[in-house]
Amino acid sequence: MKKLELHWRILIGMVLGILFGFGMTYVDWGRDFVLDWINPLGSIFVKLLKLIAIPLILASLIKGISDLKDISKFRNIGLRTIAIYIGTTVIAISIGLILVNLLKPGEGISEDTIAKLTETYSSDSGVTSKLEEAHRQQDSGPLQFLEDMVPDNAVKALGDNSLMLQVIFFTIFMGISMLLIGEEKAKPLKDFFDSLNDIVLKMVDLIMLSAPIAVFALLANVVATSGDPDLLIALLKYAGVVTLGLLLMIVFYSVVVATFTRYSPWKFLKEMSPAQLLAFSTSSSAATLPVTMERVEEHIGVDKEVSSFVLPVGATINMDGTSLYQGVAAVFIAQALGFDLSFSGQLTIVLTALLASIGSAAVPGAGMVMLVIVLEAIGFPQDKLAIGLALIFAVDRPLDMLRTVVNVTGDACVAMMVAKSVGKLGKPHVQNWDDHYDEVK
Question: Which tens digit of pLDDT belongs to each residue from 194-218?
Fold first, then answer.
């Protein structure tokens, strides 16, 4: 019998996880059982992905730059990448604003629901921590994000997944320096990183063997620990607007892939589905990065020279799904609380969400930190910020899962566009975990 493809096995794990988690909510000891005995399986899987994220960026980016043998090619790739990421982010925010202004989900929220949401979540540690982090970011200078990109200790940067931009800066610096010392002198180090890259990609294959079980555990935990179902239903219209916008972004990426790269959009979505399903389960672009790189390089055919730069940068600065959510959430909160939002205020949302996405961390919950910055930029009253966040906090985690899918899909789309524009989109070369197993049996 033919073995089920990876995306089907992951999808089955997701469905079983949701059903199991839902069932555990009706058992007195169910939530504790999921937290103690099921969730650790998912946590270990996410840790393994994060474990190899930095080595993968280091090895693949240095390999990609050293293979270029021409700094001007790297400049072309870099400029096109940043320009396309900015363009797709503006489109995402615009789609969100158009939908929320047309459908007006905030006008359907009753005063009782607002009061209940405020009472339940305004003093929640999740809300207060997001407010504190947003204020910390706002207190920094206008060029702080550039300063934060440059590490003062390479070892420290390599040891912290949240400092991915610093790792990228250090790696690019090292790769360019390798080009400048000449091929002969750089060869020993290049051979080392080439070998490291192959080893880390093999680690990705091995980790993915446990993906269906891990996804089952992650989804069971999310469902079993979800909040008040009545509050979730009350926010269904708002969640529906965000979800519709995110689906339109997936359609947009598919159309771009079909028209610009002449690649089948159905095949694109199929090949990216394992990464998308993991993005949904983990809510983290950074944790999904190793799988995204493996799918884009081995299954779609993007050359490592392109993917090794475009995808790590995208996992850090490309937040199309999150930016779309910013626009919808900000206008929704204004509608629900009766805050008058002018056209110029909505233009401010576009600009602020764009700038905030560049400095946002690729971790779960970063979108709400960005939202505080967006709300303050449009003059939203300080004393109502906690209430505004409380309105959407109940559905933030499931929406975070969905927008991470869009972020990862956008990264892959841009990688294909850049690769096509520089002639680096070729035939895929799929590698399986047991390709060399006969050699070591």
Answer: 999 999 999 999 999 999 999 999 9
Helices 385-393, 366-377: axis angle to 10 degrees equals: 140
With both helix axes pointing from N to C terminus, report the angle between 71-103 and 320-336 in degrees, rounded to the nearest 10. Answer: 30
Please state the separation of Cα 393 from the chain's center in Å: 19
The pTM assigned to this predicted structure is 0.92
pLDDT at residue 1, rounded to an integer = 41
The pair of structure tokens assigned to 227 is: 């909040």
Structural tokens at position 148: 């934060």
Rounded distance between C-alpha atoms, residue 85 and residue 310, angstroms: 10
User: 3-class SS at 421?
Assistant: helix
Contact present, 150 and 169 (Cβ < 8 Å): yes
Least confident of 7-21, 117-131, 324-338, 354-368: 354-368
**240: enclosing H helix or E strand:** helix 236-256
Token couple for 104: 């007006």
Contact call for residues 330 and 378 (beta carbons, < 8 A): yes
Residue 119: count of CB within 10 angstroms of its CB: 10
Tell me the HSE value of 267 on the side-chain side, using a 13 A CA sphere. Answer: 11
| CA 407 – CA 278 distance, rounded (Å) | 12
State the Cα–Cα distance between residues 373 and 389, nearest whole angstrom: 12
CA-closest candidate to residue 96, choices 244, 240, 253, 245: 245
Residue 16 C-alpha from the chain's centroid: 24
Cβ neighbours of residue 411 closer than 8 Å, sequence gap 6 or more: 285, 292, 310, 311, 314, 315, 318
Give, rounded to a whole angstrom, the gap between the first and last alpha carbons of the chain. 25
SS3 string, 335-365, reads: HHCCCCCCHHHHHHHHHHHHHHHHHCCCCCC
Close Cβ partners of 39 (under 8 Å, ≥ 6 residues apart):
217, 218, 220, 221
